[in-house]
Amino acid sequence: MVQYxxxxxxxxxxxxxxxxxxxxxxxxxxxxASITDLADGFHMTLTGMxxxxxxxxxxxxxxxxxxxxxxxxxxxxxxxxxVAAWIKRYQELWDARFSALDEIVExxxxxxxxxxxxxx
Amino acid sequence: MVQYxxxxxxxxxxxxxxxxxxxxxxxxxxxxASITDLADGFHMTLTGMxxxxxxxxxxxxxxxxxxxxxxxxxxxxxxxxxVAAWIKRYQELWDARFSALDEIVExxxxxxxxxxxxxx
DNA sequence: CCGATACTGAACCATATAGTTCAGTATCTA
DNA sequence: TAGATACTGAACTATATGGTTCAGTATCGG
Lengths: 120, 120
Description:
2 copies of one chain form a homodimer. By secondary structure, chain A is mainly α. In chain A, helix 1 packs antiparallel against helix 4 and helix 3 (35-41) packs across helix 4. The first copy, chain A, is elongated. The first copy, chain A, has helices at residues 2-16, 19-30, 35-41, 46-58, 80-119; strands spanning 33-34, 62-67, 70-75. Chain A folds into 2 domains: 2-75, Winged helix-like DNA-binding domain superfamily/Winged helix DNA-binding domain (Arc Repressor Mutant, subunit A, Orthogonal Bundle); 78-120. Chain A binds chain B through residues 6, 10, 13-14, 16-17, 19, 22, 25-26, 28-31, 74-75, 80-81, 83-84, 86-88, 90-91, 93-94, 96-98, and chain B through 7, 10, 13-14, 16-17, 19, 22, 25-26, 28-31, 74-75, 80-81, 83-84, 86-88, 90-91, 93-94, 96-98. The structure holds a DNA duplex.
């Protein structure tokens, strides 16, 4: 289970690491498209685009359906929410870390003031 | 092919695509650490971890400071917010797309009702 | 000063990735 | 039915990636 979730999350991050694939997601955000549409739009062979779409589909970021000759691609399930959740969690850790630093800085400032007063 | 990463955003996504590097970010979320600390924690050579840290630093996700022999690594600037912003934007497109589909479905339902009525 | 520690750089290796071409297969259309 | 269209799979190329070892260099502690 944990292994599964880890690998799914990993697949999503890997899929998002490529700028062409992020572009495809944006494109599909506007309307569904065929492999041909996408290949044209990104100046790439059908085969190349087909691979990108498969990576996105594996990661759960798009879904596809073949109707006759045409594979219709559309934006996928809620998988991206897992990526967003990871980032949110990281940001929380990170905010906490910065808060801790802030406190240290505040302590130092307070200490300075005490030093000032005791020196005069 | 020649993957020159024009954008900082791309570097961040690429950095996040590796699960070890995401682990390092989580680890640094708890406290700062040296290369040695991280290498030990992730069962990896110093050289290997050094490379990961450099990737994270290039992406602006961590900052480092060398004090004497030791390189202190800590969680970086607000760079991750750009990643979060991209995802948010994508999710908006995507919600809009689903809303549009919902409307179509609603239209179809209405049409069915009309058909029913006109057939009787 | 000497030895241990902490890292860095270069070279290397195996595998993964992004792309191609070419040769199909299946489906639509005239 | 013939030909165009839409895709798929296999094989191949070039480069990137994640890791290693080994040989330094710089710094710390006794």
